[in-house]
Design goal:
alpha/beta, 5-stranded parallel sheet
Length: 136
């Protein structure tokens, strides 16, 4: 069971061979896949930034993004995830290795829901001992 991060989704939509290969494996093996509501936010920010100056293209790409994201269960940001995220942030801060707010929430979402995180962002996520990481 997987939680996929924003980088994976971007790589998948761009046709990255590693991301596509993993997607095929997920489909073939019928593996449960979810995303964090934070990933939804990051994905839409990317769409807005990329197409802001072209209203028609922006509308088209927002609709496409909604279709792409609808394939996944979207896990909301809950108080349980907030508590775990705070624990992760404090742990990393005390070690002098803080990572971004969004990444701590994504990691906490995976841990709280007993999901493996699909990412290439090993630099940040490998700092979190409890987190199981799948890369592609």
């Amino acid at each position: 069971m997987y939680l996929v991060d924003t980088d994976y989704l971007i790589n998948l939509t761009r046709g990255d061979s590693g991301a596509v290969k993993l997607a095929r494996k997920i489909d073939y093996e019928k593996i449960y896949v979810a995303i964090s509501v934070v990933t939804v936010h990051e994905y839409f920010v990317g769409v807005y930034l990329s197409y802001w100056s072209d209203e028609d293209k922006l509308k088209e790409m927002l609709e496409r993004a909604e279709r792409e994201l609808a394939r996944f269960d979207i896990i909301p940001y809950t108080d349980k995830i907030a508590k775990k995220s705070a624990e992760i942030a404090a742990y990393l801060y005390k070690r002098g290795e803080p990572i971004g707010f969004a990444d701590t929430i994504i990691a906490a979402t995976a841990i709280t829901n007993n999901l493996k995180l699909v990412t290439r962002n090993i630099k940040h996520f490998s700092k979190i001992p409890e987190l199981e990481i799948v890369t592609y």
